Amino acid sequence: MDTAPVDTAPAPWSVPPGECPSRTVVEVLANKWVLYVLGELGALGDGSAPRRFNELQRSIPGITQKMLTQTLRTLERDGLVARTVYPTVPPRVEYAPTPLGREAGQLAAVIGHWARSHVHQIVAAREEFDEKAAVPPTPLT
């Protein structure tokens, strides 16, 4: 009987952060700005050209300069984004996903597809929950 090897490592969310390096990776990928930035950089495999900072900021509604800077630094540190500085005056800086970043972007695409496919169900569940919460409880006799 063939059996596939079983991964016996504990799930990242069940191990304290200091004891499981993969937990920090999950925390990075769970950040909403990371998903949006990877998507805008073409990490979803659409072959987009590298993007400049201001271009990225304009294309991601709601992201501040500070959050975009922090997100890009995190992604660069983790090897998901490559930053290229061109020796011009003023310097031109471009960001592009690495192969690892494109792979992570594919995960983001799946999450985005699932969200779009199920948004109506989630909105309906929220409305139902809120309606129940608005009804005062009946007194016990």
Task: Write a structural description.
The chain has 141 residues and is mainly α. The chain is 52% helix and 10% strand. It contains 5 helices and 3 strands. The chain has helices at residues 21-29, 32-40, 53-59, 65-77, 99-134; strands at 51-52, 81-86, 92-97. The protein has a 3-stranded antiparallel sheet. Helix 2 crosses helix 5 (99-134). The longest helix has 36 residues, at 99-134. The mean pLDDT is 85.
Kindly list the characteristics that best describe this protein.
single chain; 141 residues; mainly alpha; 3 strands; extended
> How much is the average pLDDT?
85
Query: What is the C-alpha radius of gyration, as a whole number of Å?
Result: 21 Å
Q: Care to count the β-strands?
A: 3
- How much helical structure, as a percent, in the residues? 40-55%
Strand content: 5-15%
Major sheet: size, sense and barrel closure? 3 strands, antiparallel
Unreliable residue runs: none
User: Count the helices. How many?
Assistant: 5
Termini separation (Å)? 62 Å
SSE layout and pairing:
Blueprint: H1 21-29, H2 32-40, E1 51-52, H3 53-59, H4 65-77, E2 81-86, E3 92-97, H5 99-134
Summarize this entry quickly.
The protein is mostly helical and 141 residues long. The protein has 5 helices and 3 strands, in the order ααβααββα. The chain has a 3-stranded antiparallel sheet.
